[in-house]
Amino acid sequence: MALDQVDVDNLDQKGDMSVFDHIDELRGRLIKALGSIVIVGIICYIFNDEIFKYVIFGPTQEWFPTYTLLNQLFGSDIGAVPEFEKQAIGFAEAFITAIKVSFVIGLIVSFPLVFRQLWLFIKPGLYKKEQKATRGIVFICSVLFLMGVSFGYFIITPFATKFLMGYTIEGVKNIPTLGSYLSYMVMFTLPAGLIFELPVLVFFLAKIGLITAQTMKKYRRHAIIVILMLAALMTPPDVFTQFMIGIPLMFLYEIGIIVARRVEKQNAQD
């Protein structure tokens, strides 16, 4: 579309804002987003002991829901986790780890508010029909992200913890530090939350014509190979665990195909 053919009526009134006005608004949005993370983080720090006992160290305990469910389904002690000592090495590792935990949980819990502030900054730059097409995007992205984090926490983390703690080298005692344990937990959860945003990514790529449902169908086999490789990287070398990781990722890919098909129909109507 030529510049002189742009539908001015469809542009938001914020198109009159200067660059400095946009920067000022962005600063305000970032302050609100960061403020929500800080508030939740402070609350988490207040309940530091309970969070470490039931949330952070939960995947290392036999009462963890994942182990309990597997034991009930398979009638065996599959949920048994090797006991290991937890230690903090360094002058301030315990304190720094507690701060990191508060920040990470604050980020996860505040994600809907953070993303909403980001979207409120982006939304005025869209046409009216684009705003209508993306209605509910904050809710959808938030739900997918929290589902991904929950998947990483309840599925990936327990199996990975069990494997890594059960893997030993003769003559070497496996004693993980508090910081390393937290780093692995973050690695197993936050990326899973981002991966679950695949349908949303497909939506935007299909909207601008970079991807189609037919293309995704054509390269489905290639996608399956990539998904299996990704599952192998995210999990220990256990076929059962990789299967449990791969199936939801394949399901997300199929949802992406459906999303791309619906976007193509909308583009054709427009």
User: What's the multimeric state?
Assistant: single chain
Q: What is the number of helical segments per DSSP (H or I, 4+ residues)?
A: 12
Strand content: under 5%
Report helical residue fraction: over 70%
What distance lies between the first and last C-alpha atoms, to the nearest angstrom? 14 Å
Mean pLDDT, all residues = 82
Q: Which class do the helix and strand fractions yield?
A: mainly alpha
Low-confidence stretches: 1-13
Global Rg: 23 Å
The description of the largest β-sheet is:
none
Please write the string of helix (H) and strand (E) elements. Answer: HHHHHHHHHHHH
| Number of structural units classed as domains | 2
Shape: flat
- Please report the total strand number as a whole number: 0
In short:
By secondary structure, the chain is mainly α. It is built from twelve helices and no strands.
Structure overview:
The longest helix has 31 residues, at 239-269. The protein is 71% helix and 0% strand. The chain is mostly helical. The model is unreliable at 1-13 (pLDDT under 50). It has helices at residues 19-46, 48-56, 65-74, 93-109, 111-122, 128-133, 137-166, 178-195, 198-207, 213-218, 220-234, 239-269. The chain has 12 helices and no strands. Helix 1 (19-46) runs antiparallel to helix 5 and helix 7 (137-166) packs across helix 8. The chain folds into 2 domains: 18-194, no CATH class; 197-270.
